[in-house]
Design a protein that fits this description.
Layout: E1 13-21, E2 27-38, E3 43-47, E4 52-56, H1 63-67
Parallel strand pairs: 1-2, 2-3
Antiparallel strand pairs: 3-4
Length: 68
């Protein structure tokens, strides 16, 4: 999703109700409710009704260890 999504001036991709301050090159997906970031860089945040994932973009390959 990161690669194909349109980014803002700070390189962020936001989907859902997101507020960001001093945050750069992040992907934030908020399914329900407000998601806020302050001072984050190169982070992926995915919030669904069941779970929240917060990960460094360069460590996303390790998410499979959590899923297992």
């Amino acid at each position: 999703m990161w690669d194909i999504s349109q980014k803002d001036a700070a390189g962020n991709v936001y989907q859902g109700d997101v507020l960001a301050v001093n945050s750069n090159n992040n992907y934030v997906f908020a399914e329900t409710g407000l998601m806020a970031t302050v001072g984050l860089e190169n982070i992926v945040v995915v919030q669904t009704k069941d779970a929240v994932l917060v990960a460094a973009k360069d460590k996303l390959q390790d998410v499979k260890a959590i899923v297992q």
